[in-house]
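Chain A, query sequence.
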Amino acid sequence: MIRKEIEKLLYKSAQKQNIEGEFCVSFSSLPNLCDFQCNSCFAIAKKMGLNPFDLANNIVNHIPNNEYFNFSVARPAFINVSLTLQGLEHLAKNLSKISYDIADGKKIFLDYGGPNIGKAMHIGHMRSFNIGEAFKRLYKKLGFNVVCDIFLGDWGMPMGLIMAMLEKEGSLDDYINEKKPLTLEVMNVAYPKASLLKSQDEEFKHRAEELTLAFQKKQQPYYDFWKKLRNVSVSEIKKVCKLLNVDFDLWNGESDANEYIPTVLKIFEDKGLSRISEGALIVDVAEEGEQIPIPKKSPDEVQRYENPMPPLMLQKSNGGDMYATSDIATIYYRNKDYNPDILHYFTDVRQNQRFVQIFRACKKAGISPVNQQLWHTGFGTVNGKDGKALKTRDGNNMQLNDLLNMLYEKAEQKLIENGTAYDEDLKRKIGNAALKFADLSNSVEKDYNFDIDRVLSFEGKTGPYIQYTACRIKSILSKAPKFEENYSFTSEYHKNVLLALNRMSASYKICFEAKSLNDLCASLYDVASAFSSLYNACHILSEQDKKLQSAHLTLLKMVLKFIEEGCFILGIEVPEKM
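Chain A, predicted structure.
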């Protein structure tokens, strides 16, 4: 809001001199020099054939005296803007009533999570949960009507492989007849063995395919056993989601799309979009003249391209449906049931091309309306601090439950070291904050290295540091005398906190546009750091000047509100004390 006010003043001044152009005000890159800056005079002067420095001076000199802002020009043509004391008060009051609604009544349908039933969840599911949940909360803050679905992988070969392995071991009938209890551990043992055997034994692979087809055709007793597999898996997935402070409106999966596959295949056929190629049913999605970049193995490698976009396969030559077909059928029924303005998917970045193909196919067939936006956010992988895959103590690839248990164990050790009484829920909150902040503070599409000791630190750019800052403010406010809100901020420390809050208020839209949460994380850290500087420099509770003390405490209330709101978006819970 403040930057818009400054832009409006610059634009009106330019209009008086018949100067046409757009003025963009940003936060200052040199905060010791000014609070905001405008670099627009370079482009405007070039377009009009004017001297940039003279143009900037003319614009500043024609701005009427303003109680909130001081304008100046620095060579070669930067317009610098600093807040006056009245400007600080004006900024603070604006921040206390700012509105973030940009949605214009639009509905967003989010698809994130995507674990396969019958298999242990891996680190990638953690990223999907964290990123998707944060965007769900961000979109709600921005005024969107949000529906979210975990979309389980529950209708494919993994369940057939588990059945085939249990059958080979002679225990399938016992689990079907409930002579033995079916647990996630049973599935987690059976699936890896079956997956390995599939590549070595063609007869076993064929049997797994038969059993997959059997439950997909709802043949008994395999269909009912599939439902048991699903129920056990969903129950365990919900436990993990509860630990991570993640929830979904819908718990649908590929199985829910199955009944719509014949409908979407007929749509492609009726519109002449599908064709047979080497026995498979495909749809062409390439666009004329496009080049598809091949991912570089190193930054210095020459960019190479493949051309064109390969066709999307809808059915195998044996008549089997593809995952892409299920995804298209899912878009079909989501539009039928919910009619969202935007569909937003979160998956591994390696699926980027597949979603381009799916989205193009849906647009060609009219399954996705012309005005509907289809978004896919691909995320990178998580590695250990050595840049290699995260491992457990015994050297195995780390699963999501392994990582959570390790985090919570380390968080408990931290609390013991700090002399804090044991608290099961507190160690979970701290572990989650460490995990989520580390995950979301990186640009979403990039791989990153995860150092468990660093992310759990109560100092530096970490989730626990943000939590600790909020707890410290809560403690101060609980001990403070009653006070009336006072926006008369006079110190440089007040100013730095307010500017940090202002940058944080802008971060929500930046995150929305970038489809990444790292700017909010950076802003939260800046707010916490600015508060710490204020706390170290000012004796808030012992301040004798009651007017100054009330200004301190008013600012602390604002900081706490902003930190709690930012943490909520990230899925981080703020405890009462640490």
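The chain has a mean pLDDT of 93. The CA atoms of residues 431 and 531 lie 23 Å apart.
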